[in-house]
Design goal:
Largest sheet: 5 strands, parallel
Strand content: 5-15%
CATH superfamily of the largest domain: Rhodanese-like domain
Shape: elongated
Helix content: 40-55%
Number of domains: 2
Number of strands: 5
Number of helices: 8
């Protein structure tokens, strides 16, 4: 048996399998390299009722009124600007008092679609708040990855101020 020839054949087989796999998944690879999937590492695999969405879906759900938006940023950032109608549920406060994230506190039925957002893709408060909301009984939660930064950059509607001030 010629080990050199076998090694070359094995390398050729690996290369033949690798190149098409990369080409078929190039879009996913690019998203991973940009960091689009970072938040998914913070949630247990297969978390039911939680999905990551982008700007287009968040905008559609806002326009249709089919979802309730939850801002996980600190209250001062919320007051500077937020998605119209969004509830302010800062992660720090909700972590200390989970009653702030219940369906009763938000005046929302538990099966209503929630869109949780924070500052953007590098922000983790929306992912962490999602865990609290799930434990509080909400069953349909979407995390808007682009968050407030992407919402504003797109020129979508905004409100300023807070009724909690």
């Amino acid at each position: 048996m010629d080990l050199k020839k076998t090694g070359k054949e094995l390398a050729a087989i690996v290369l033949i399998a690798f190149v098409p796999a990369v080409l078929l998944n190039l879009g996913l690879i690019r998203r991973q390299l940009r960091g689009d999937f970072d938040e998914s590492l913070l949630l247990p695999a297969g978390t039911p009722g939680v999905a990551f969405i982008g700007l287009a879906e968040a905008g559609d759900l806002f326009q249709s009124g089919a979802a309730f938006f939850v801002d996980s940023r600190p209250l001062d950032e919320y007051a500077e600007g937020h998605v119209p109608g969004a509830a302010s549920v800062p992660l720090k406060e909700a972590s200390e008092n989970t009653a702030l994230a219940t369906p009763e506190a938000l005046d929302v039925v538990p099966n209503r679609t929630l869109i949780v957002y924070c500052n953007g893709e590098d922000c983790r408060t929306s992912v962490l708040l999602t865990r609290i909301l799930r434990e509080a009984g909400f069953s349909d939660i979407k995390i808007f990855l682009g968050g407030w930064a992407e919402w504003r950059a797109a020129g979508f509607p905004a409100e300023v101020g807070s009724d909690k001030e």
